[in-house]
Write a structure and sequence with these properties.
heterodimer, A: about 130 residues, alpha/beta, Hypothetical Protein Ychn, Chain: A, five-stranded parallel sheet, about 35% helix, B: about 120 residues, 4 helices, DsrEFH-like (chain B), transferase (chain B), Sulphur_relay_TusC/DsrF (chain B), EC 2.8.1.- (chain B)
């Protein structure tokens, strides 16, 4: 089955961890992930700056490794990210901000990517939200 | 056949960015001409009240964006009757042409759409 996975929750929310475990299980079960789309506070899970104590789960780090190892299409909503201070080098330069906290394998793009993923997938699975 | 998408908006307009961000999904999808619907549920029904005074909380008014939905081709707009009742708003004027749905119609609506996003 083809899944599109949307994450709306911040990294410390349980649904963010569940999203990652679901994504890992989907691939392990032979399914396909057409795209990960991080929206709302989910954009923080793509940020590269969180520093976790060594004995705690580093969710952002795990996401990054997972996306890179699996070569996934991983999109962070640009409007949601800008609003929350998650910027790649290009946006930091455009808005004259001193910090860059988003790198490959993540890509900033628009909500059209969520709609496209929804069209390409058999199922859209959302994590987070009220 | 494109997949249809129901966006369920459950947050009050000034309770954080959720109302705006749910609306942005609908407007973006409308621009791509996709079969979309929007349902206002729980505190999301407060978005439909015409007496918004967002400047009192230094916010931008969402009403104009909401009213742009039909122009973006999103004409399937629903509100949960129970949510209105619970808030004493059942006969209150609304700022959008929304169709009121009772519990069983709500279930049927969610069933009818291929995908659902709740914000």
């Amino acid at each position: 089955m083809k899944f599109a996975i949307a994450l709306f929750a911040p990294p410390h929310a349980p649904s963010s961890r569940r999203a990652l475990r679901f994504a890992q299980a989907a691939l392990a079960g032979g399914h396909e992930i057409v795209r990960l789309f991080f929206y709302q506070d989910g954009v923080h899970s793509a940020a590269s700056n969180p520093v976790c104590p060594q004995d705690e789960l580093d969710l952002s780090g795990e996401w990054r490794e997972f996306v890179r190892d699996q070569g996934l299409d991983a999109v962070v909503c640009i409007a949601a990210a800008l609003r929350r201070g998650v910027l790649d080098a290009q946006e930091a330069e455009r808005y004259q901000r001193s910090a860059v906290n988003l790198q490959a394998p993540w890509e900033l793009s628009g909500l059209g990517q969520l709609h496209e993923a929804t069209q390409l997938a058999d199922r859209l699975i959302c994590f987070g939200g009220p | 056949m494109p997949q249809s998408l129901l966006i369920i908006s459950r947050q009050a307009p000034w309770a954080g960015p959720s109302a705006r961000e749910a609306l942005d999904i609908a407007l973006a999808g409308g621009a791509f001409d996709l079969p979309l619907a929007m349902l206002f549920l729980d505190d999301g029904v407060f978005q439909l009240l015409p007496e918004q005074q967002p400047t009192a909380v230094q916010q931008k008014d969402l009403t104009a964006n909401l009213q742009a939905l039909p122009m973006f081709g999103v004409e399937a707009l629903y509100v949960a009757e129970r949510s209105l009742q619970e808030r004493g708003l059942q006969t209150h004027p609304m700022n959008l042409p929304v169709q009121m749905l009772d519990d069983s119609a709500l279930t049927a609506l969610i069933d009818r759409y291929d995908q659902v996003i709740t914000l």
